[in-house]
């Protein structure tokens, strides 16, 4: 895992956005794996700005979101489809027909999960998968005890996740307790994984992800198996890492190497 520790959430968003911007410059028809939650919001704002400035285009991009509440239709203000339209899709030049979010209103959710996997395959697989992380180490809605090789399926949300997300629902409003989520195996199939985490309340989950055992108890620890996983975190989220200085040292060495390679290329 590449661990990039930055000063604050603004730097995390900037770094993450640049990785995606460079991906789109290299491969304009990239397949993006996208995430909801508070963490990616400012990254999306930077993508919107880059699109509006003509730096990148989403015309040939296909996207797949990680998850959706089961029991909410696409128009529901708390649905992840609605969130994505608001935060990103409505503000960029993407063809909405190429954006995929698991159908929260599927009549047959099990068939819908299989179809979602087939759609990802048909698109050629995900080039870069963006992830947040839950306080309990979940990625997507893969809660602790999720199979490390799991595929897209219906998952029951933990009490902790329901509580964390209650802030988005009005008092007395129906809050789903089930979801459709890509599996951990689905996420691990992405060519590159980009996990963002900011704030003290993610520090324990980040510690378990990086320095804990590979275990379904912390679903994000499965990223230890990935060939190209980048964790971009701020100082607060890094605060419980025992070897923080070593990760910073590695990153400094990485940058020196990149600069040497760039100089070599420039002749
Ligand atoms: P957050 O959610 O970005 O709102 O903290 C992350 C997650 O639960 O995956």
UniProtKB/TrEMBL annotation:
Pathway: Amino-sugar metabolism; N-acetylneuraminate degradation; D-fructose 6-phosphate from N-acetylneuraminate: step 5/5. Residues 10-228 form the Glucosamine/galactosamine-6-phosphate isomerase domain. GO terms for cellular component: cytoplasm. Keywords: Allosteric enzyme, Carbohydrate metabolism, Hydrolase. The active site is at residues 67, 136, 138, 143. GO terms for biological process: carbohydrate metabolic process; glucosamine catabolic process; N-acetylglucosamine catabolic process; N-acetylneuraminate catabolic process. It comes from the Bacteria. GO terms for molecular function: glucosamine-6-phosphate deaminase activity; identical protein binding. Homohexamer. Catalyzes the reversible isomerization-deamination of glucosamine 6-phosphate (GlcN6P) to form fructose 6-phosphate (Fru6P) and ammonium ion. HAMAP family: GlcN6P_deamin. Belongs to the glucosamine/galactosamine-6-phosphate isomerase family. NagB subfamily. This is Glucosamine-6-phosphate deaminase.
